[in-house]
Specification:
Elements (H helix, E strand, L loop, with lengths): L1 H37 L4 H21 L2 H21 L5 H18 L3
Length: 112
Amino acid sequence: MMKLVSAAITGGLVALVGYLSVRRRQARVARSEAIRTAVEDPTQELLRRAEEADRDREELAARGSRAEALDRAREAVDCWTALTQARVGRFQAERQSALRRLQELRTSAGSF
C-alpha cells in the first residue's frame, strides 16, 4: 500500500513539474513575441503596405477597375519610394517596376 501511495505522489509531482515547465516556456515565448513585435523595424509595415498595394493594383486592373487600380498604383509607388529612402540602395527595382506599372495604367486610362 505504501508503494502505491509513494508512486502516486511521485507521479503527481512529476506531472506538476512538467505542467509548470510548459507554462513557463509558454510565458517566455509570449514575452519574446511581444518584445519582437515592439522592436520590429518600422520599414516592415511600409514593405507590407507596398506589397499589398501591388497585389491590389494587379487584381483591380484585371477586373477592369482602372480608377481604383491607379489609386493603388500611386500608393505602391509612394511606399516603394519611402522604402528606398529609408533603406538606401534597396528596393530600387521594385520602385522602378511600380513606376512603370503606374505609367502603363495611366496610358491605358488615357490620363498622363
